[in-house]
Amino acid sequence: MRLLIIGALEGQLSTATKMAMDGGAKVAHAPSIEIALASLRAGRGADLLLVDVMMDIAGLIAGLEAERIAIPVVACGVETNAAAAVNAIRAGAKEYIPLPPDAELIAAVIAAVARDSSEFLYRDPAMDRVVKMAEQIAGSDASILITGESGTGKEVIAKHVHARSKRAGKPFISVNCAAIPEALLESELFGHEKGAFTGAIARRIGKFEEASGGTLLLDEISEMDVRLQAKLLRAIQERIIDRVGGTKPVPVDIRILATSNRNLNEAVREGSFREDLLFRLNVVNLKLPPLRDRPGDIAALSEHFVAKYAKANGLPPRALSAEAREALLKAPWPGNVRELENTLHRAVLLSSGDIIGPDAIVLPDGMGLAEAASASSLSAQLAQTAQTMSAALVGRTVADVERDLILDTLDHTLGNRTHAANILGISIRTLRNKLNQYAEEGTNVPEPGERRSVA
């Protein structure tokens, strides 16, 4: 655990934090927010920021967001600073620690922050097989490609692999390739030198250097531009990077994990993903099954989320009724674990008693799970019907399809030419010309008031 103390709190916090972590914490100090941001920008990362409550915490959090650095912030101050503590929490601080510090309290806060970032709960045999494979290969330096639908827990399993690897004591750095604009992603990964481009006011250490010695997770790598993939391939093969605007290569020692919710083999065929990069990344593939195929996990995660959000909202413990559990197991969960968590958070807030019934388990638009499942089934049926109808047209000429459409519409209107032309969106003259052509070709054309006779 790497801690960065910001402000004039070194003397009060250093000893307590080391006691709290039994000497296992690496503690650094920064006298100001500007120096702290410069340190983080330079690649000297941290897992937790302990900040003087009297400092500009809102400005610090805004600076972290601008630099796309995700680190939890905990405010610290004397107990009499109640208003400052409230403002710090509102600004985005995770917790508030009163001073003088208590080692047990700091240990509890650090444990809570660590737990929030690495919760991993599973019970289903389908998921157990994936986890066993992950743990079997965790000790190697092999690249791993983690695939699965959005919300299945790809980043969670990546952190699990890192925690059980020989790099566990080193940084785990994650970068979302889909969330960063293409023009900025190269700098985010490889860093840049001062003046490399407009706005590069100082050297910035990229995620590769920041993760050196540890693990780098490339989240949703399928969204990376194919031109940047070539530079990534070189970095993975040679363990050397070039900063944007740099003049000499920089060696790095990292393990690469990557995730994707797309079929990368299809992306290779489409030309949007390099085949040689896929080979480099896909030494081992951990494929996470969707939540709908993990009933054991639905049950375990449901109980966990109910307890978590009842406590978080200051509510008494609540339990799911048998009917609610059955409804949860039958739901399709297209958003997987993320959707399940949001649904149960909502259920905790909507339920009026200690037992959560199926009426409290609704989607954001108020639709119940049974209705959602029915709608999903109907949509699938309609999609299948449309696909079947489309397939039936393949191999036929446009003229044949047009003739059948015109005659079927005329049959529907009992031979009324004007009504049929309006439905088809063509002029009555065009319709009559088509019908005369069909009659000359020997096709049976119904007269007004008649239906076609089909042999």
UniProtKB/TrEMBL annotation:
Domain Response regulatory as annotated: residue spans: 2-114
Family annotation (InterPro entries): AAA+_ATPase, AAA_lid_NorR, CheY-like_superfamily, Homeodomain-like_sf, HTH_Fis, P-loop_NTPase, Sig_transdc_resp-reg_receiver, Sigma_54_int
Signal peptide range in chain numbering: none
UniProt-listed PROSITE patterns: RESPONSE_REGULATORY, SIGMA54_INTERACT_1, SIGMA54_INTERACT_2, SIGMA54_INTERACT_3, SIGMA54_INTERACT_4
Keywords: Activator, ATP-binding, DNA-binding, Nucleotide-binding, Phosphoprotein, Transcription, Transcription regulation, Two-component regulatory system
Modified residues annotated as 4-aspartylphosphate in this record: 52
Entry-linked SMART domains: AAA (SM00382), REC (SM00448)
Sigma-54 factor interaction domain segment(s): 120-349
Protein name: Sigma-54-dependent Fis family transcriptional regulator
Organism: Devosia yakushimensis
